[in-house]
Amino acid sequence: MDSLDRDAESMTDYRAWLAARFRDLKAANRNFSHRYVNQKMGVHSAGWLSDILAGRQKLRPRHVSPLAALFKLNPSEKAMLKTLVELESADAPEDRTAAYTKWLELRGIPREQLERDRLRYFEQWYYPVLRELLTLRPSLTDAAALGAALHPPLPAAKARAAVALLVRLGLHNPDAPAPVLVKKPSATPHWRKILEAYMDLARPALKDFPREERDFSALTLALSSESLREAGEEITALRRRLIALSEKDVGKDRVFQCLFQVFPVTQSLPADA
């Protein structure tokens, strides 16, 4: 099951991974069924495993050890499953950051904590874009060509200065893989600044690009505080899936900015008498 081991290192969603392992075990033993797993796990719902694999339920940390034994996971696979479950179930920002950091460690990806002097990275919208573009096309070293590849275009002098800053801050090295950046909570004011810049880019993009080159949508709905928290969890899960999609995409040829915006447009209303 070497292919499964490789998949385990690239996924941020454990469901496809467990479904693949279930198919392998089922092929080796026809008695290995959803019903068998449910019984061994001590759950009363006949559809528990189906709901887990379909995303209708979440695995809980208490499920990890017995399920790892049933699915014959080796220690590194069990550690990966435990981390992915923690990543999905974490509510507090610090818990999500800790789980994500552990996930990076298990994958062996170099990571960088943005130190105070690196908060300049959030000063201009084009710093992250250029960094991603250089990761995509390391051979693109001409400042004029780099600037022209952005939308809106960037003067060559600004592109050259931006690349120099990325190199100086250790955020770009043409001879080494780009580190994954984990934002510290202290970066919040600077992060707000760059989010505002991204929002400013969105308005002209709505008319500058045809529909097949962008995806804009809107949804207006009423939510409670608890539902808003759950909506945030869904967006977090979607971000992880998009990261995984980008990682496995061998034909990627463009940098996109993804904005997820959920914000109130009314005051909280008092309950009806």
Descriptive notes:
α6 (75-89) runs antiparallel to α7 (93-107), α8 packs across α10 and α9 (143-149) packs across α10 (156-168). This protein is globular. The model is unreliable at 1-11 (pLDDT under 50). It has helices at 2-10, 14-28, 34-41, 48-54, 61-70, 75-89, 93-107, 126-136, 143-149, 156-168, 188-208, 225-248; strands at 111-113, 180-182. It folds into 2 domains: 2-107, no CATH class; 111-214, no CATH class. With 273 residues, the chain is mainly α. It has 12 helices and 2 strands.
Strand fraction band? Answer: under 5%
Structural category is mainly alpha
Q: What's the main sheet like?
A: 2 strands, parallel
Helix content: 55-70%
| N/C terminus separation | 61 Å
* Overall pLDDT score: 81
Low-confidence runs of at least 5 consecutive residues: 1-11
- Count of runs of 4 or more consecutive helical residues: 12
- Rg result: 22 Å
List SSEs in N-to-C order. Answer: HHHHHHHEHHHEHH
Number of strands: 2
Query: How is the largest sheet built, in terms of strand order?
Result: 1-2
How many domain regions?
2
Shape: globular
